[in-house]
Amino acid sequence: MSVVSPAPPLRLKESYLSVSFTIRSWLLSTDHKRIGILYLLSITALFLFGGAAAVAMRVELMTPQADVVRAEVYNRMFTVHGVIMVWFFLIPSIPAVLGNFLIPLMIGARDLAFPKLNLASWYVFMAGAAFTLWAIVRGGVDTGWTFYTPYSSTYSNSYVMLTATGIFITGFSSIFTGLNFIVTIHTMRAPGLQWFRLPLFVWSLYATSLILVLATPVLAISLGLIALERLFGFGIYDPNKGGDPLLFQHLFWFYSHPAVYIMILPGMGVVSETIACFSRKAVFGYKVVAMSSLAIAVLGFLVWGHHMFVSGQSTYAGLVFSLLSFLVAIPSAIKTFNWTATLYKGQITFATPMLYALGFIGLFTIGGLTGLVLASLAVDVHVHDTYFVVAHFHYIMVGGMVMAYLGGIHFWWPKMTGRMYPEGWARFSAILVFVGFNLTFFPQFLLGYLGMPRRYHTYPAEFQVLNVMSTAGASILGVGYLFPLTYLLWSLRYGPRAESNPWNATGLEWQTPSPPPTYNFKETPVVTEGPYHYETGE
Amino acid sequence: MWDFPLFPESASNLAGRVDAVYFALVLFMAVIIALVCFLVVFFSVRYRKGSRHNRAMKPASALVELVWSIPLFTVALGIFTWAGKVYFDMRTMPDSALQIYVFAKQWMWKFEHADGRREINDLHLPVGEAVRLTMTSEDVIHSLYIPAFRVKMDVLPDTYHEQWFTPTRVGTYHLFCAEYCGTEHSQMRGRVIVMSRGDYQEWLAGRGIAAGNEVLGEMTGADLLDHFRCLTCHEAGGAIQAPSLTGIWGRRVPLSDGTSVIVDEQYVRESILEPQAKVVAGYPPVMPTYRGQISESQISQLIEFIRKSGVNRATAETSPAPVDGNVGGGQSDTGERK
Fold first, then answer.
1. Which of A140, B284, B302, B330 is in Cβ range 3.0-4.6 Å of A76 for a Cys bridge?
2. Is A64 on the interface with B (CB under 8 A)?
3. 8 A C-beta contact, residue A390 and residue A470
């Protein structure tokens, strides 16, 4: 972006953080930056909660027999883990925290298009989270995050309706956020900021927002129909009442497969920004990368049937869904290729955000390619509903999205808080996360091809060694997550003060002070060039 | 400890074909992952800040994207077609096959052979003969999965789903429920016992239970209780309620027809073979019969187990004498027990 003028030194009082210190000023703030921080605090707490459930599961799985918890408890653990991590961490993670904070800054606006709707989205999110947590406290839910019928609609004796209500409510916060982003990106770009001058982070969140707005209502419909069946006995999914259990799977995956892309596209956006910055180069094939985000958003709606190759769905439908699933891999492959090509002839440095981005490339490649194994019909018959699937989507969701999220948090931490994090600790924990992650989830690919089904509380003895390896990895991964939590909090008080542009990055967000004032920009910036105007060879 | 498998056994006609596609995919993935990792590391080192390598670049042409993407995509399409072909063959039922009916319920597998012979959680099959499973569920969705055969198919209520395979190696293999089906999902496991044709004929001829179940013959009462999934229902706190087996021995229990019976050898044996004959009051008549699936010696093992674990606390000091009158409406059966 063009350098408008070096940011003037800011009096502390003007920063969005110090404009007021009352709780009321936070809870009633319509400042997109403060709402981003509210989301950051909420989803961090929820992440720790969902992570605790994962720890309990990994401890239980160290031995083949049941020894720590009973089957009822184990089933509630993996359901809680899935529900919390998907709807209350991954989906809001980058969009609601970094997207909220950065989109107006990146496009030179003073706020989102609908600031009050933005605040409302946080309250709706918290209401949904409260419902879900209440359901868990009262006794939990044991259907798995997928809520397959007729188990969920007729047979489960757990708090299905309460949890589903929580998710239903939270869906509206997704819709509010998506709508807000779409309108903001369309109407509030700074003068001269044409579509193809937008940072790739904005492009990826634009694609994400389209999915949020279009797919989430289908989730609401499928959960609503479960409510009709459970509460009023309508025969929708239960064959005993004339319903069709597969209908639920179609509706659920019509939402949940696009939702997978909600959970990875924003991470791709973060990686594009950090790789460009720490290679000192424009992203290779900018337009192709931007368009591939949209291609993923569109194609993502057409592949839901690949979750149903052994459900009894028509063989020919299976063939079409398999082909489309191969096609949706193309835009992802393009991105991976282009990030790698961006490194070529750069001036590469290895700050923590870059370590996370490089880790992302490797893990996302593995996650994406193993998706092709699952898209291959005959092979999916064998590995469907085994640990192979568990490993695959954790490579995407954790190896991809969580790595990108942590990278993004480190990259924009100076901007968000006005403080630098301790680089040595941060690099160390990035490497710890990478090692722990691989040790946790790589053995699960082997377990899956061996035939260990997922959602198993007990298992045959020959699977134990790989399970112990996975648990050992999880303990390293867990420690790797606790480090950033600690040193980032520490940095709020003891970290060195950040300059307005500590990474010497392009992008409008770096041309305003750290932390930015409430109004973001004193004068609306005028943009005259593309987003990655890095000069190589310096 | 270090003797653990990294790759599953192959024991059906389909296993080798699925593995072939998988190996092709693994090779495809390995090449790409190695290439990406190599380039990332190579560029990171070569073009680290301050290195002296030349940074002068010609503007890249859009052709670069096509040069790498077209060959990769062609290979991927080839794998798609190959996997699709194997899938179609899996889904096309053979003209003649050994017909087995499968009934799934929370949390057990029931198999019915063409001659009416029934099994629970065990499926005996001859080697080298095509088998067709016609499957339905009595409650939720289950999924019948035999990893060694590389076959899996969901089992739905109110619908028949079919799958087929030809076992190619004699042996005992895991049979799993792969679709999450509730509390004891991970206990919904069984065994496929592939026998030589001779052994299978013998098994069919009725010498089967002992011959085919040598392993079962050595099981203790507790093992059998586990094998036949008795505790799925006969345990306090389960989703399906049935009388707890602890503390029941020697007691007089009320029956649904208003009479009562003392729990002794005769009643336990009858309950295993003809569960609907005398149902304890307050419980639904849902237990399946185990006639033909359990040998007399196994029944006696179970009886001994219940006798030992089931001595009523009130009379524990003596041999289990019948105790009258202290059971009302089965309420002590629902008492807390761990």
1. A140
2. no
3. no
User: Which class for B23: exposed (0-12), middle (13-18), buried (19 or more C-beta within 10 A)?
Assistant: exposed
- Is residue A139 within 8 angstroms of chain B, CB to CB? no
pLDDT for res A441:
97
Of B22, B29, B80, the CB nearest to A323: B80
For residue A10, pLDDT over 60 is answered with no
Chain A residues with CB under 8 Å of B27 CB are none
Nearest to B44 among A71, A148, A348 (CB): A348
Q: Is the dihedral of CA B24, B25, B28, B30 positive or negative?
A: negative
pLDDT over threshold 80, residue B3: no
Tokens of residue A80, six digits: 């809680």
Residue numbers in A near B20 (CB within 8 A): none
Q: Please write the tens of the pLDDT for every residue from A64-109.
A: 999 999 999 999 999 999 999 999 999 999 999 999 999 999 999 9
Length of chain A: 538
**Are the C-beta atoms of residues B284 and B276 closer than 8 Å to each other?**
no
The reply to whether residue A385 touches residue B145, judged by beta carbons under 8 angstroms, is yes
What integer pLDDT is reported at residue B229 of this predicted model? Answer: 81
ipTM: 0.92
pLDDT(B33) > 60: yes
Residues of A with Cβ-Cβ distance to B17 under 8 angstroms: 378
* B18 and A CB contact within 8 Å: yes
What is the average pLDDT across A361-379? 97
Please give the pLDDT value at position B316: 37
User: With contacts defined as CB-CB under 8 Å, which chain B residues touch A350?
Assistant: 44, 48
Query: Mean pLDDT lowest for which of A152-156, A475-479, B54-58, B95-99?
Result: B54-58
Q: Give the integer Cα–Cα distance in Å for A400 and A269.
A: 11
Q: Which of A442, A433, A307 is nearest to B33 (CA)?
A: A442
Please list, in sequence order, all residues whose beta carbon lies within 8 angstroms of the beta carbon of residue B100, skipping any fewer than 6 positions away: B111, B112, B113, B114, B123, B125, B131, B132, B133, B134
Residue B136's pLDDT band, with cuts at 50, 70 and 90, is very high
Cα A141 to Cα A136: distance, rounded to the nearest angstrom: 7
Which sign, positive or negative, has the C-alpha torsion B81, B143, A393, A84? positive
How many residue pairs from chains A and B have C-beta atoms closer than 8 A? 246
How much is the pLDDT for A9? 52
Measured in angstroms, the CA of B43 and the nearest CA of chain A are apart by 6
- Residue in chain A closest to B17 (alpha carbons) equals A378
CB contact under 8 A, B32 and A369: yes
Cross-chain Cβ contact B48/A349 below 8 Å? yes
Which residues, including other chains, have CB under 8 Å from residue B63's CB and lie 6 or more apart?
A: none
Does the distance separating the beta carbons of A370 and B178 come in below 8 Å? no
Q: Which residue of A has its CA nearest to B48?
A: A348
For the segment B59-70, what is each residue's pLDDT rounded down to a tens digit?
767 677 778 888
Q: Which pLDDT score is estimated for B206?
A: 73
Beta bridge partners of A407: none
Give the confidence band of B328 by pLDDT, cuts at 50, 70, 90. Answer: very low
Residue B321 has pLDDT above 70, yes or no: no
Tokens of A281: 């180069």
CATH fold, domain A3-537, is: Cytochrome C Oxidase; Chain A (1.20.210)
| Residue B91, token pair as written in the block | 């889904």
CB A382 within 8 A of CB B8: no
Mean pLDDT, chain B, rounded, equals 83
Any idea where the domains of chain A sit in the sequence?
3-537
Phi, psi of B249 (to 5 degrees): -60, 130
- Give the B window 306-335 contacts with A, CB below 8 Å: none
- pLDDT reading at A438 higher than 50: yes
Q: Which of A72, A334, A459 sits opposite B186 (nearest CB)?
A: A459
